[in-house]
Structure formats: structure tokens, C-alpha cells
Design a protein that fits this description.
single chain; 62% helix; 569 residues; globular; mainly alpha
Length: 569
């Protein structure tokens, strides 16, 4: 047997950084499937943040001492450099502890990580009990950091403080106890004698106490200002997209794209319901169509899994080569208190835990499929699951840091939105209702650019914005949260609860929402440039294969690398 080739110095260093991150953040370790940390939770203190910041500086300095001996090495170093540089900028401005919301805070991440833990042995049950006991300490470190943040900087706006408090109360209402009982049943231990039940009750008490403290002590210190401003927005946009963006050009482009999408939506609306006065009327018609209904959560999960499996069968060998190891994508119900939109969580590093799509029911038991077809192309195959699974299988081309840490929202969400568009190009939305659902998702992502940039940079709405619901003519008016909600309801046919949740998300997580359309634009531009450059040599399947094996990159780096592609596999 031949000896394996020695790892390059850059790949070895990438491994070291991943190991550091796993030790620093046990939630990351569990998400990645790195063993040894499932009983722990993060330290959110300011002192810990400073230690992480200093480590990032040392890592960047050490990276510059390493030589790249191949294109693979060069790309690996570029990924590390770009990600650590934008992370350092966030540390230096204390951005991560200044920015939280229902979508992104220790309250949601701590609750979610339990759902990713293996539950097959008594040792697993022991880890769950120990992690539950650590919930209180972890939340206390966050509370201390919030107090320092309130003294040194502005906290997020009141809506985010109260929103996270509500989320904590939801979890305190029995979420950990339910998980403890589920753990006991799955692992064959006694919930009482194992300590699971008591630890879960303590975790719930800690969540309840945090919620009360956030309302009484933190909310009065919250900012009265919703917008983060252009300087902070640029910092976050670099983090989420890995690109330097012209925000004002992007704002204008997003609005024109939204108008383009809306024109086609109205064409479909007039076919489905001639004389319709609003897109909402057409959405109501589709929502109440028995032929499109799914009754019950069991039926929903069965359909989601079957839908993904069928898509994989139809695309494999034609537009993609899908490895059997990542063919299955699980579907589960999101824990109570999750955000309103579906989401995806990666497989474990060794693929023993499959990639999983999560559907938030928001208390409903009946669902309309026309809104969800394109979403599951986005979340599973050919979207996130295929992309991230391919990266995990590409250890010969992508360093461990690249595969587990290098993903930017612009690359990942851009690919997933491109995947939706690809399925439209391939004729998968022949049903007009399904096409309208796809276009509603496209409109949502275009509207995100308009309102996310508009709200945070305090811009005026376009001069031809027109009437938005009960708010009247909003042309040239400064963007407000109420205007943003009305735009999502009217132009992207999102229901009111979803629209409110979306706007809360934008205001609480600057620049993340724009990464979808920004990324999709980059993917489409790279594809068109390759077509023009390669002519008859261009192959769509080869383009997909090369881009996915190239792996997650910041969008500026991705564009540069794709410009070098010669058309080969």
C-alpha cells in the first residue's frame, strides 16, 4: 500500500485553526460533527472575545509565513485570509456582541444545538445532561457581555431585545424538558436518575430568568435607532458576501430586478384569476385550493423527503453527478421559537449525521405546496445540500477550514437562489401556481436588497414606488419598517406574520439578507462570462461541477477564480 501524500503546510494550518475553533466554540464543534465538545457551551464573555481576537491576529500573521506550492494551496490560503480578515474587523468593532436578534443570538443557537446531538448511547445522554447544566453559565456570560456592550456601545433596537426575550420565554415553556424526555427514550436511560429532567428544568429556569432580565433591565438600555449606518453596514456586507459592494448601485439594481419579477407575477395572476385586484387575492386562491394542500406534519415531512429524492433522481447524471453519500437529505420540524423561514443545517464532517432541512410550522397543521416547491430546491437539491455536501467530499481540493468555515452567505445563498432559477430554466415550474411561488421567493430576495439597504442607510424609497397598502403613496419617502412590511406583503405576497419576521430579521442582522441576490447575480455573471469565453466548449454540467468542487469563497475571490476556468472538469 502506498503512503498517503503529506499534507501541505497550509492544509495542516487549516486543520489547526478548525481545532482551535472547535475548542473555542462547542456549538461549532457539534454543528461540524467534531467530537469531544458535546457536553459544553460557549463562553460569550468580553474577555473570551478578546482572546479570540488576539488568536485571529496570530493566525493571520502565521499564514503569511507559509508558501503556497499549488493552486489548491493558493486558494486554501485565500479562503483563510479573507475569512479571518473580515472576522477580525468584526472583533475590532465589537460587532458580534452589538448585533443580535431572534435569528442570531445565544438564545436560539443554544436551543438549536441540542437537536444536532447524537442520541444513540448512554454516553450521549450524559453529554446532553452536562450540556443542559451548562446552559445557565453560558447565558450568564452573555448577560455580562451585554452589560458591557450597553456601557460601551449602542445595543440593538428595542424590538430585538424584546424579540429575543419572547424567544427565551418560548424555550422556557418546556422545550428543554421535552428534549430531555426524548433523549431518555432514545438512549434507554431514566430521565430522573440520569439528571436529565432536573438539568432541563434548570435550563428552562435560566431562559425564563434571562427573558425577565432582558425586559426589565436591558430593554430600557436598548437603542432607539433601527439603522446601523453605512460604515457598519459595509463591515457586515463584507462578512456576509466576501465582496466590496457599491451599496447605492446595488439598491438601484435591486429595485429594477424587483419590478422585473413583479411584472411576470402579474402576468401569471391575470391567468389564474382574471381581473384580480392584488397579488394577495391570487395567493389566497392558491392557499385555499384543496389540490395544493398538505394535511398534517407527518404528511408534510414525507412529501419533503420524497420531493428531494425525486429531484436527485432526475438531475443526477444530467446536470450534476450526485454522490450516493449525500443523496439523502433529511427533513424535520424546526424547534418552537425558530424564525419563520425554513432553513438548512449541514451534515456532520464525517456525514454520519445527514444534512437536514428544517420546516417551521408556526403552529399550523395544514400547508400549501405552491409556496414551498422552489424553497426545497433552494434548501436541499440542487441547493444547499448538494453544494455543502459536495464541499465535504472534496477534501483533496478544499482544506478543512475551507469546507467547515469558509462558506460565505453570498456564495451559499447565491448558489441556492441560482438553483431555484436553474430549476425554472429547466422547466420545473410548468404549473403556474408553482411558478408564482418561485417568483414570490425571487421577489422577496429582490425586495430584501431594497429594504435592507434602504432601512440601514436611511434612504428614500424610489420615486415611482407608489402606494403601499394603507400607507398611501410612499414614493420618495424615507424607508420605515412599516413600509418594508407593506412592500413584502404587496409585491412578494408574504403574509403579515412572515413579513414582520422578515423585517425584524433585516434590522437585526445587517446585510445578511442582501447576500442572496448579490450571490445569485455573481453566479449568473460567472456563468455568462464562461459561456462567452468558452463558446461551444461550455458545458453547464461541467460549470456546476467545477464551481462546486472549487468550494465556498467570498464572492470577489469566487469571481476571480471562475474567470480562470478553462471549461474542464
Amino acid at each position: 500500500m502506498s503512503e498517503p501524500e503529506p499534507q501541505s503546510a497550509i492544509f495542516a494550518f487549516a486543520n489547526e485553526i478548525v481545532d482551535q475553533l472547535a475548542e473555542s466554540n462547542p456549538i461549532f464543534a457539534t454543528e461540524a460533527g467534531i467530537p469531544g465538545y458535546d457536553h459544553l457551551l460557549p463562553d460569550y464573555s468580553v474577555a473570551k472575545q478578546r482572546r479570540d481576537q488576539e488568536q485571529t491576529v496570530r493566525d493571520l500573521q502565521h499564514l503569511e509565513t507559509l508558501d503556497a506550492h499549488s493552486d489548491v494551496d493558493r486558494i486554501a490560503a485565500a479562503v483563510i485570509r479573507e475569512r479571518l480578515t473580515v472576522q477580525l474587523a468584526l472583533y475590532e468593532a465589537d460587532e458580534e456582541r452589538r448585533t443580535f436578534s431572534v435569528l442570531n443570538s445565544p438564545v436560539s443557537s443554544i436551543r438549536q444545538v441540542f437537536e444536532l446531538m447524537p442520541l444513540t448511547s448512554t454516553e450521549n445522554a450524559h453529554n446532553v445532561a452536562r450540556r443542559l447544566k451548562n446552559v445557565r453559565v453560558s447565558l450568564e456570560t452573555w448577560r455580562g457581555a451585554l452589560l458591557i456592550t450597553a456601557a460601551e456601545h449602542e445595543l440593538p433596537a428595542t424590538r430585538h431585545v424584546l424579540g429575543v426575550a419572547d424567544q427565551a420565554d418560548t424555550c422556557a415553556g418546556g422545550a428543554f424538558s421535552e428534549f430531555a424526555e426524548r433523549t431518555a427514550a432514545a438512549t434507554g436511560v431514566d430521565a430522573e436518575s440520569s439528571g436529565l429532567r432536573a438539568a432541563a428544568k434548570d435550563a428552562e429556569s435560566a431562559y425564563s430568568e434571562l427573558a425577565a432580565w432582558m425586559r426589565s433591565e436591558l430593554a430600557p438600555k436598548a437603542s432607539t435607532k433601527e439603522a446601523c449606518g453605512e460604515e457598519r453596514y459595509q463591515r457586515w456586507s463584507a462578512y456576509w458576501s466576501g465582496a466590496t459592494l457599491d451599496l447605492h448601485e446595488l439598491y438601484e439594481w435591486g429595485y429594477q430586478d424587483l419590478r422585473r419579477i413583479n411584472t411576470r407575477m402579474w402576468e401569471i395572476a391575470n391567468e389564474l384569476l382574471p381581473g384580480a385586484k392584488s397579488l394577495v387575492e391570487v395567493a389566497d386562491l392558491l392557499d385555499n385550493d384543496p389540490a395544493r394542500a398538505i394535511d398534517g406534519t407527518d404528511a408534510l415531512l414525507t412529501m419533503l423527503k420524497a420531493f428531494t429524492a425525486r429531484t436527485a433522481d432526475e438531475l443526477d447524471g444530467v446536470h450534476f453527478d450526485i454522490d450516493d453519500r449525500i443523496r439523502f437529505c433529511d427533513a424535520r420540524l424546526a424547534p418552537e421559537g425558530s424564525a419563520a423561514a425554513p432553513y438548512y443545517i449541514n451534515p456532520s464532517e464525517d456525514l454520519s449525521r445527514p444534512g437536514t432541512t428544517w420546516f417551521p410550522t408556526m403552529g399550523k397543521t395544514k400547508f400549501s405546496w405552491w409556496r414551498n416547491a422552489s424553497t426545497w430546491y433552494h434548501e436541499s437539491i440542487p441547493g444547499h445540500h448538494l453544494q455543502i455536501g459536495t464541499a465535504l467530499l472534496s477534501s483533496d481540493r478544499q482544506s478543512r477550514f475551507h469546507r467547515l468555515v469558509g462558506n460565505t452567505s453570498g456564495y451559499a445563498e447565491g448558489w441556492a437562489l441560482y438553483a431555484e432559477r436553474l430549476m425554472d430554466e429547466l422547466g420545473y415550474f410548468s404549473d403556474l401556481g408553482d411558478e408564482l411561488g418561485y417568483l414570490a421567493n425571487q421577489a422577496l430576495r429582490a425586495a430584501r436588497i431594497v429594504v435592507d439597504v434602504g432601512l440601514h442607510l436611511e434612504l428614500d424609497a424610489p420615486s415611482d414606488m407608489g402606494v403601499l397598502g394603507d400607507l398611501g403613496d410612499c414614493s420618495n419617502k424615507r424607508w420605515t419598517a412599516e413600509m418594508a412590511v407593506a412592500l413584502l406583503e404587496q409585491w412578494a405576497i408574504q403574509d403579515h406574520a412572515m413579513s414582520v419576521s422578515e423585517v425584524d430579521r433585516y434590522l437585526g442582522l445587517p446585510a445578511q439578507a442582501i447576500s442572496y441576490k448579490v450571490g445569485e447575480r455573481t453566479w449568473l455573471e460567472s456563468r455568462e462570462a464562461a459561456k462567452q469565453r468558452l463558446g461551444e466548449k461550455f458545458s453547464l454540467k461541467a460549470f456546476h461541477a467545477h464551481a462546486l468542487v472549487l468550494g465556498p469563497l467570498g464572492l470577489d475571490n469566487f469571481s476571480a477564480e471562475m474567470a480562470l476556468w478553462d471549461g474542464g472538469l
